[in-house]
Design a protein that fits this description.
This protein is globular. 37% of the residues are buried. Helix 4 (98-109) packs parallel to helix 7 (195-211) and helix 6 crosses helix 7. It contains 13 helices and 18 strands. The protein is an alpha/beta fold. It folds into 3 domains: 2-73, Dodecin subunit-like (2-Layer Sandwich); 87-270, FAD/NAD(P)-binding domain (3-Layer(bba) Sandwich), CATH 3.50.50.60; 280-482, no CATH class. Strands 6-5-4-10 form a 4-stranded parallel sheet, with helices on one face. A 4-stranded antiparallel sheet has the order 11-16-13-12. It has helices at residues 11-16, 28-33, 70-73, 98-109, 123-136, 168-178, 195-211, 262-270, 290-298, 379-394, 406-410, 440-453, 471-482, and strands spanning 2-10, 43-52, 60-68, 92-94, 115-118, 215-218, 220-228, 231-239, 245-249, 253-255, 280-289, 315-317, 323-330, 334-337, 347-350, 359-368, 401-403, 429-431. The longest helix has 17 residues, at 195-211.
């Protein structure tokens, strides 16, 4: 037998519930009060945890529990060991980012012994290469934030939630927990692993694939395919270890490539592979003091030990019909260099598990439609590449990112220095006017949307405010308590 119950706690009530583990509360006594069934209560499972901050004077922690008797709590622990197919039938997965990880894992568990090609390095080598690029601004084309074991997700905030309703979402979370991710991602409303922990989980999944007969070719870029009678017959690849093109016979290939694999898109187009344009988004990263975000979302309760660093998700629809929206908001995080090519600038956001950095950041993005990109099917890809290279030049052609204070962007004037918020981007920033990068429709949407978002999150556009005193003293005190 099983039974669902919903619980609501004030912050102080929740804080008094004893810890079962470092990051979990022990709800056993509370759950027992809600059982009242003939069969004995054995265990519970947390289904969901969320924060209701609509009334800042009365913030509540909401918990949904699934109560279980003995029969319902028994989980099978055995899994059938697959039988391996012959090597000649082994499928190939190109790319070991999020899509490639789960494609390869499922194939391996079916006994198909997949072969995985990843143009970037293994995790340990890749972490060192990326760290050096943050210091000296030199990007390695085969080992960077975009390419390598884990894909861009290994250097991101580690968020694992989606707005879609699909039962496969829970499968993803369960697999990461099996690989060592913190168990609370199974029930938090906005699951978060963190950059530091997701890297270890990805490596654990890779080791399972290898144990099931999968084979990995790291630093090996697929450069073309061969066909027979309109079907795939093999692929060509180049290994960083050998200066020559090699060939592998295969019949089934899954392309799990990221959007930065421009050379792959090009040779697919030359082969006549059908592709179509799709909408995408471009924009900038915006940084605020995390304390300001906490105060705007939680009011006087900010800094309470039972509250996460606050997040936000905002959308603004402009009079022209275009929208500006926030994406990949990183509480207590960092803006990082994410280029996959030399002489280009791309930014992304990341947070560690504790999310205890001084700043919050988020992408603010404007949609670009196929109609905005006249030309062939890869015109959008060309637009992105041109924008990234222009950002490199505007940043000083040294790996620094172009940067501008919000108030200066709104007034269309170049910034000369930072204000109260110090940019987190490494190796550094160049203060300038970033409006010169974008078409005017993007600049207009950014300017309108930033001011409009301030109506729902006080301080988002700054509007000339510096937060140097008064209310900011409360913010800084709240930050100190949290640390």
């Amino acid at each position: 037998m099983e039974k669902e119950v919903s619980l609501r706690f004030s912050l102080d009530e929740y804080d008094r519930i004893p810890n079962k583990l470092e990051t979990e509360k022990d709800f056993s006594e509370i759950a027992l009060l809600h059982w009242n069934e003939k069969e004995p209560f054995v265990s519970y499972r947390v289904l969901k945890k969320s924060i209701d901050a609509r009334r800042k004077s009365n913030i509540r922690i909401e918990i949904k529990l699934l109560l279980l008797d003995y029969e319902a709590s028994v989980i099978p622990t055995t899994r059938q060991v697959p039988s391996y197919f012959e090597p000649k039938n082994r499928p190939v997965v190109v790319g070991f980012g999020p899509s490639g990880i789960f494609a390869a894992l499922l194939l391996a568990r079916e006994g198909l012994c997949p072969i995985i090609f990843e143009r970037g390095e293994k995790m340990d080598k890749r972490i060192g290469d990326v760290a050096r690029s943050f210091t000296d601004g030199v990007v390695l084309s085969s080992s960077n934030v975009q390419f390598g074991e884990g894909g861009a997700g290994a250097f991101s905030d580690g968020k694992l939630y989606s707005g879609i309703k699909n039962k496969r979402k829970s499968v993803v979370l369960e697999e990461f927990v099996r690989a060592g991710a913190p168990p609370e991602i199974l029930y938090e409303s906005h699951p978060h692993i963190g950059t530091d922990r997701i890297r270890a989980a990805v490596q654990e999944i890779r080791r399972e694939i290898e144990g099931l007969g999968g084979s990995f070719f790291f630093s090996s870029k697929v450069t073309g395919f061969s066909e027979e009678n309109g079907k795939i017959s093999g692929l060509f690849y180049q290994s960083a270890a050998e200066d020559k093109t090699q060939y592998l016979s295969c019949k089934n290939v899954i392309l799990a490539i990221g959007h930065s694999a421009r050379d792959t898109f090009s040779f697919l187009l030359e082969m006549g592979i059908q592709m179509e344009k799709k909408p995408f988004s471009v924009g900038v990263r915006i940084e605020h003091k995390q304390g300001m975000i906490d105060f705007s979302q939680y009011g006087e309760s900010c800094g309470h030990p039972s509250l996460f660093p606050a997040e936000y998700k905002l959308v603004s629809r402009t009079p022209t019909g275009r929208s500006l929206y926030t994406f990949c908001m990183c509480p207590g995080g960092y803006v990082i260099a994410s280029s996959s090519e030399e002489k280009s600038i791309v930014t992304n956001g990341m947070s560690y598990y504790r999310r205890n950095g001084e700043n919050a950041n988020s992408a603010i993005l404007v949609g670009v439609s196929p109609e905005d990109m006249p030309g062939d099917v890869l015109s959008g890809v060309a637009f992105q590449e041109k924008l990234e290279k222009a950002a490199f030049v505007l940043g000083g052609a040294n790996g620094y990112a172009p940067c501008q204070r919000v108030e200066d962007f709104l007034k269309d004037r170049a910034s000369l220095s930072a204000g109260t918020i110090q940019p987190t981007y490494q190796p550094g920033v160049t203060f300038t006017n970033i409006r010169s990068l974008f078409p005017e429709y993007i600049n207009q949407t950014l300017a309108f949307g930033i001011k409009d978002m301030d109506k729902r999150l006080a301080g988002f556009s700054f509007r000339g405010r510096t937060f140097d005193g008064g209310r900011d003293e409360k913010l800084l005190a709240a930050q100190d308590r949290k640390r």
